[in-house]
Write a structure and sequence with these properties.
Blueprint: H1 18-42, H2 50-74, H3 79-104, H4 112-127, E1 132-133, E2 136-137, H5 139-152, H6 158-184
Antiparallel strand pairs: 1-2
Helix pairs in contact: 1-2, 1-3, 1-6, 2-3, 2-4, 2-5, 3-4, 5-6
């Protein structure tokens, strides 16, 4: 997967807030998740609506927010610093999800932001029970993400989606994301 990501700060000497970092991570993770959906479609996997694509993006983002949490725990972030960063990241992603959902749905009163935050919280709790070995999400964590994506995909080729997510999409996305994380986190 070749996509352009922001992997360096423009003003290197300036101290960054959790909001600054969360915003840059959110921008990049949204692009990565979107590229994963496009790659799935190019590989012949079925998505029928823009909402379904956003459901897949949401599941992938839930996985990657947890990966960021694990990465920051390895990089000597304090508990408060991690919480601030993950909160800023989730809120930035939720705003983008809200904007995208409102663009394609007539019902502007639905709490898309709250639904997304709830999904992130559920995935954070669920993925916390899985191994994260050698700075990589373990097999069970990748499998569970694949199963969540499978649940929101179209009926065609449903039995292959989990394997595609585990074996191709997540590893490719992690390669791209590590370029971002190296200098941003």
């Amino acid at each position: 997967m070749k996509i352009r990501v922001k992997s360096r700060w423009n003003d290197k000497g300036r101290e960054r807030t959790a909001e600054d970092t969360g915003s840059v991570l959110a921008f990049n993770l949204w692009r990565i998740a979107g590229a994963n959906v496009l790659h799935l479609e190019n590989e012949g996997f079925q998505t029928d609506t823009y909402n379904q694509r956003l459901d897949v993006v949401a599941e992938l983002l839930g996985f990657f927010v947890h990966v960021v949490d694990r990465m920051t725990s390895e990089k000597e972030y304090s508990e408060d610093e991690r919480r601030e960063l993950i909160t800023a990241l989730a809120l930035n992603l939720a705003k983008t999800m809200l904007d995208n959902r409102r663009d394609v749905n007539e019902d502007k009163e639905v709490d898309y932001k709250g639904q997304f935050i709830q999904l992130i919280n559920e995935r954070m709790a669920e993925y916390a029970g899985f191994a994260y070995d050698d700075k990589e999400p373990g097999f069970q964590m990748r499998r569970r993400c694949g199963e969540h994506v499978t649940e929101v995909m179209g009926e065609k080729d449903k039995k292959w989606v989990t394997d595609q997510i585990m074996d191709i999409e997540i590893p490719d996305a992690l390669k791209t994301f590590k370029k971002v994380a190296r200098n941003i986190i």
